[in-house]
Specification:
Length: 147
């Protein structure tokens, strides 16, 4: 299950992503928002990120104007590794190296065609493991040290 979230600034791109997911047989859960009415990205990223933390969803795609607010807020939830990507190489590498579980996109940054390519490579690329596991463990240690 893919967790989806957007604010008003990412709503239209989220609709295009929903169409892509449906056409390609992915199941998803949309945590809002539900229109282009002004709203606050953290409300939706928190709900969607928690669905990944608790295992309901495996990965997430969060969209706002830049993708940045979504990423900053999602990364506050333990276990979330959210990456803002606007190029193909980064979207691929953040799966290979960071095991990113949330892709954040900026509707005002990338066009729809590129955004859907980023979604595709993000969903189709598996984590490489090996030396990167140690690095992810260190990120988890940072979370533990906050408590
Ligand atoms: C909303 O205007 C905008 O600030 C938001 O979508 C996002 O870009 C924040 O990071």
């Amino acid at each position: 299950m893919i967790a989806l979230a957007s604010d008003h600034g990412g709503y239209k791109l989220k609709l295009a992503i929903i169409k892509y997911l449906e056409q390609n047989g992915y199941s998803y859960k949309d945590f809002g928002c539900n229109s282009e009415e002004s709203c606050n990205y953290a409300d939706f990223s928190e709900m969607a990120a928690n669905s990944i933390k608790n295992g309901e969803c495996k990965r997430g795609i969060f969209v706002c104007g830049t993708g940045i607010g979504m990423a900053i807020s999602a990364n506050k939830v333990n276990g979330i590794r959210a990456a803002v990507c606007s190029d193909y190489f980064s979207a691929r590498c953040t799966r290979l190296h960071n095991d990113a579980n949330v892709l954040c996109l900026g509707q005002r940054v990338v066009g729809e065609g590129l955004a859907l390519e980023l979604v595709r490579v993000f969903l189709e690329t598996e984590f490489e493991g090996e030396r990167h596991v140690l690095r992810l463990n260190k990120i988890a240690e940072i979370e533990q040290n906050q408590k």
